[in-house]
């Protein structure tokens, strides 16, 4: 299973700027989102009735992390999951990096 422990961010970003960048990336990639606390957004991606995946996106002014939360239809077992999950997470990571200039 692909995990994103820490996307390192450039210096000088405010927490609000990081949140806007994360939310924009999620929106562009068609994720549903809900802010559950400062620095944490729960996000969910659904492909019709085919599958669903849910993650916690945790962030501060230095980094962003994406943590697996739940899935349906992706055969999660013992830390292994369908390649679709990994593809979606890599795609989201790439978009977050682009929105926050974190390369």
What does this structure look like?
A five-stranded antiparallel beta sheet has the order 1-5-4-3-2, with helices on one face. Helix 1 packs across helix 2. It has helices at residues 15-28, 83-99; strands at 4-8, 32-37, 40-47, 51-59, 63-72. Strand 4 and strand 5 (63-72) form a beta hairpin. The chain is of the alpha+beta class and 103 residues long.
Q: What keywords describe this structure?
A:
globular; 103 residues; alpha+beta
Secondary-structure blueprint of this entry?
Layout: E1 4-8, H1 15-28, E2 32-37, E3 40-47, E4 51-59, E5 63-72, H2 83-99
Antiparallel strand pairs: 1-5, 2-3, 3-4, 4-5
Quaternary state of this entry equals single chain
User: How would you sum up the major sheet?
Assistant: 5 strands, antiparallel
Percent strand = 35-45%
Number of strands: 5
Structural class call reads: alpha+beta
What gap, in angstroms, lies between the N and C termini? Answer: 22 Å
Q: Residue ranges: pLDDT <50 for 5 or more in a row?
A: none
The SSE order reads EHEEEEH
Mean pLDDT: 95
Q: What Rg, in angstroms, do the CA atoms define? A: 13 Å
Helices, by number, come to: 2
Helix content: 25-40%
The strands making up the biggest β-sheet line up spatially as 1-5-4-3-2
Shape: globular
């Amino acid at each position: 299973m692909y995990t994103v422990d820490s996307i390192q961010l450039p210096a000088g970003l405010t927490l609000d700027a990081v949140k806007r960048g994360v939310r924009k990336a999620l929106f562009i990639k068609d994720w549903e989102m809900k802010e559950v606390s400062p620095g944490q957004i729960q996000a969910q991606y659904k492909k019709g009735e085919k599958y669903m995946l849910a993650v916690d996106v945790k962030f501060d002014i230095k980094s962003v992390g994406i943590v697996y939360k739940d899935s349906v239809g992706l055969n999660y077992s013992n830390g292994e999951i369908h390649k679709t999950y990994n593809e979606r997470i890599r795609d989201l990571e790439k978009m977050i990096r682009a929105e926050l200039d974190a390369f």
